[in-house]
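#lab-general

N.A. 3:47 PM
ok so I finally got the sequence cleaned up, no stray characters, all 154 residues accounted for. can someone with queue access submit it? mine expired

B.Y. 3:52 PM
send it over

N.A. 3:53 PM
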Amino acid sequence: MSSTAQQLAALVSAPPAPVKPGAMIEPVVIDNGVAYISGQVAFDGDAAPLTGQVGAEVSVEQAAGEAAKAVANGLYRLADAAGSLDAVERMLKITVFVNSVAGLTEQPQVANGASKALHDILGDRGRHARSAVGVASLPLGVCVEVEMVAKVRV
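B.Y. 4:20 PM
back already:
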């Protein structure tokens, strides 16, 4: 198993389930060397992502861990679409959405979980611009969702 595969497996036990045929979205769209990765959550094999709001049911540290798992799922999807993570020239931008209680200001600390995972897995290719956004709720009630944009060799 390659070092990259080991790092991904350390975050999530299995790649995310394939998108069901007929879904209204594509998990990854590659256009002119730019890959747009749809919002990912922290599915981990059969384990569901943590639900609840950060600052209430979920701690900042737990949410940062969920952000790292979401990144791993996005990288699995990107590797599938691009043929390999070797095709990734660099991450360009990530957006981390944090299901936050009113007044929470620690969204950047949650997003650090995603940023660290990208750097750990991709090295300098994982460096990126970033937004960390607090929201009132997310699909499935999850605590964090991560979108990514990457430059890839086509």
